Amino acid sequence: MKIGILNYKYAVATSVSGPADIFAALMRTYPVVTGKELDADFQIDFISEKKGVFWRTPFSETEQQKMTRNDVYDLVIVPAMFSTRILEVVRKEAKIIDWLKQQYKAGTELASICVGSFLLAATGLLNGKKATTNWMFADLFRKNYPHVTLEDDKIIVDQGKIYTCGGAFSFTTFMIYLIEKFCGHEVAITASKILMINVHQQPQTSFSIFQFQNNHADEAIAMVQKYMEKNYNKTITMTEMAGISSMSPRNLIRRFEQATSNTPLEYLQRFRIENAKKMLENRNDGIEQIAMKCGYEDMSFFRKVFKRHVGMTPREYKDKYGRGSLKAK
C-alpha cells in the first residue's frame, strides 16, 4: 500500500512524521507480537513540491526522487499547518492543491489532519460533503468554505474516500481508524495495544473552549453580551436584554445572531457552561453548588444542557479534568 504524506512549508512536523512512525512501527512490531506477517506492506513517502516539480523521499531515507504523473498513491495524508499560516498556505500551495485533485481523480484516498482540512477543502473535493477541523478554527473554515458541511463536534469524519480529523494530536487515533479501514479491525486493535493509543469516541466538544464572540462592531449587542457575562448566575429574561439594547426582542435576536452566530439564549447557555467547566476543573464544590452558581436551579436541566454542549455529564467532566485528575496513578 503506497502512502504519501505531504511536507510543505509551514506544515506541523509532528503531523508529517507522526503518521509515518505509526505505520512503520506497526510493520515492525505486528509480526513480533502476533507471529503473523502483516498483509499490508506500507510504502511511505514524504512528498514535497519545489518550483512546480514534485519530489518524494521514502521513509527512513534522505535522498529525494523526482516524481512523475504515473506516481499514484493509495492514500495521501495532508498534515496540519501552523495555525497562524492557514490562509497563507492555502493561497501559496496552488500546485499542491492541483496535485491532490489529480491524485483523487486517479483513485487516491485523501485524509487531512486538523487544519490541514483547509488545504483539502481548497481542492473543492469537499463541496457538498461533510468534514471536521480543529474547533478553534471552525468559524474561519465555514467562512472560507460555505459549501462544506462542517461537523466541528466530531473527531473524525469519514466520507468514503475522503477523511478529516479534528485536533492536531488526534492524528494518533485517526491513524488507528485508517488502519482499520485498510487492514481490518483485528490489526487496528493490535496496533492500538502495541502503540498504546487510546481509541476514544468522545466528541471535540469534550475538549473545546467557548470563545467569547466579541469580534464584531455591533455596540448594542456587545453591551448585551457584557451584561450577560456579568450576570450569568442570575435569571436573565429576553425582555430584560431587549430593554438594555433598546430593541424589540425579535430585532435583538436577529442582530445578536448576525453578530455572534448564536441566539441570545444560546450565548447565555454556552457562557454559563464554560464557567461551569472552569469551576469543575478548579474547585472542590459539589456539582449542585456549581450549577447554582452558574444560574441553574434545575439539576436535570443543567445536566442535559451540559452534556449537549460538552459531550459528557458534569460528573464525567469533573472526573476527567478536575483537580487531581492528572496525577499519576
Stated plainly, the CATH topology of the largest domain is called Rossmann fold
Q: Hey, roughly how much beta strand do the residues contain?
A: 5-15%
Distance between the termini: 40 Å
What sequence of helices (H) and strands (E) makes up the elements?
EHEEEEHHEHEHEEEHHHHHHHHH
Could you say how many structural domains there are in total? 2
CATH class of the largest domain: Alpha Beta
What can be said about the biggest beta sheet?
A: 8 strands, mixed
CATH superfamily of the largest domain: Class I glutamine amidotransferase (GATase) domain
Mean pLDDT, as a whole number?
Answer: 89
- Could you give the order of strands across the largest sheet? 4-3-2-1-5-6-10-9
- Total strands: the figure is 10
Give an account of the 3D structure.
- This protein is an alpha/beta fold and 329 residues long.
- The chain folds into 2 domains: 2-206, Rossmann fold; 219-321, Homeodomain-like (Arc Repressor Mutant, subunit A, Orthogonal Bundle).
- It is built from 14 helices and 10 strands.
- The chain has helices at residues 13-34, 86-92, 94-105, 116-121, 138-144, 171-183, 185-195, 219-230, 238-245, 249-260, 264-282, 287-293, 299-310, 314-321; strands at residues 2-6, 43-50, 53-58, 65-66, 75-78, 109-113, 130-131, 149-150, 156-158, 162-165.
- Strands 4-3-2-1-5-6-10-9 form an 8-stranded mixed β-sheet, sandwiched between helices. A two-stranded parallel ribbon has the order 7-8.
- Helix 8 crosses helix 9 (238-245).
- The mean pLDDT is 89.
